[in-house]
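User: Run a structure prediction on this.
Assistant: Running it now.
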Amino acid sequence: MKEELYTIPVNDAFAADCECPLCAMRKELEQNAIEYTMGPSYMEDDNRALTDEQGFCMVHIKTLYEQNNRLGLALMLQTHMMKTTKDLKALSAKKPAGSGLLKKDKTTTPVWTYIQKKEENCFICNRVNHTFERYLHTIFHLWKKDKDFSSKFKNCKGFCTYHYGLLFETSKEYLKGSELDSFLNLLNEVYFDNMNRLAEDIEWFINKFDYRYQDEPWKNAKDALPRSIVKTNHTILDR
């Protein structure tokens, strides 16, 4: 089929030499979101309103700090802190009532509810998740419409455990009957075959630390550790 714009990242990821195409797509989305956040967009009113409201998670605030735009980050944090302080001052005016000696008040204060929501929010995570959901939809669209994609799916190096589970769970929303059975059968085959392949690589990696194997070739095991981290923790290391 003729490749359309929204299919390009998905097709590229499944054609790439990687241990999980979905991890590769998500990593690229994350990098794009970081560059977008620290680019000229932080001066736009609409984006500043979102960063003021959502803030950043612990992982991404550290990543942003490691970028070269310290002034941009400072400006975003300044207005984010101002909004947070203003909101919490208003909420803190309502003090929690005491529950007495015999019973505990299990209701959550507005202050804690607000802070918990902040902890669960992140401008970059939200931006990545929004586009990643479209990519996930595209995978099943291509599976149904594009025979070349099903071949790429079959010949990829499998998936991390998290994204295998995500595909397994999400498939029922897009496929039915024999289509669903065919997809799940291939998904299982691709996942388990490649987990076994990598398990053999990591075993040989371990063997190479034994003096009895020191003169043996590395085979495919030299980078088995970072590849295993992808499979088990859906995390692509910067190497």
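Residues 14 and 153 are 6 Å apart (CA to CA).
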